[in-house]
Amino acid sequence: MPETSIDVFAKARDNERVALLRAAREADIVPYFRTVEGPARPVVEMEGAARIMLGSNNYLGLNGRRARHPGARNALERYGTG
After folding, report:
1. What letter would DSSP give residue 40?
2. Burial of 63: CB neighbours in 10 Å, binned 0-12, 13-18, 19+
3. pLDDT tens-digit profile of 17-28?
4. Interatomic CA distance for residues 55 and 65, integer angstroms
């Protein structure tokens, strides 16, 4: 049986967005990351508009609760971060 060679990266290399990504890297902007303006909550302000946050681990909406801050501080002091 003849040996077959498959270039698994050809699809990524030949994609039409490669030129766009190169231009973004040269301009020091990457189009895949957006700046969130404010705390991580279920709805955030992004690019001047309200957006539903689907990319955060704050799925319970507890990050903004002040009551949790002393407990988090105590845990950091007792157990550290590693």
Report:
1. -
2. middle
3. 888 888 888 998
4. 19
